[in-house]
Write a structure and sequence with these properties.
alpha+beta; 115 residues; single chain; 24% helix; 3 helices
């Protein structure tokens, strides 16, 4: 979400990468961010890890979508926007936070601390 707007790159299930357990979008966040910046020049001022983000996966074993979000996005408004943008069935979708999607500087420092 940026200024209250969900910025998303939905990928059809068939275009996802199937690793046997999950179906995931084909682009990493850095690659996707470059595409989003081309579409939204106002985003050129930011790196991808400065804007709260997430990822949608399909868990094949449980036949459900798993949406990982920055904890700042973990609210009903964002969840509804994600369900709508990705055309996800609410009954088959779970939302989770994950440290990999954080924008909090202290969490990032801890995540990438070499010591």
């Amino acid at each position: 979400m940026y200024l209250g707007e969900l910025i998303a790159l939905p990928v059809p299930y068939e275009a996802g990468i199937d690793d046997g357990l999950f179906v995931n979008g084909p682009a990493g966040h850095a690659e996707a961010w470059e595409r989003l910046q081309r579409q939204n020049p106002r985003l050129l001022l930011f790196e991808y890890d400065e804007i709260p983000r997430g990822r949608v996966l399909f868990d094949k074993a449980k036949a459900r979508y798993v949406v990982y979000l920055d904890r700042t996005l973990f609210n009903r408004t964002t969840q509804q926007a994600v369900l709508s943008a990705f055309a996800l069935p609410e009954a088959q979708t779970v939302f989770r936070t994950d440290l990999h999607y954080t924008t909090r500087r202290q969490d990032l420092d801890r995540l990438f601390d070499d010591g």
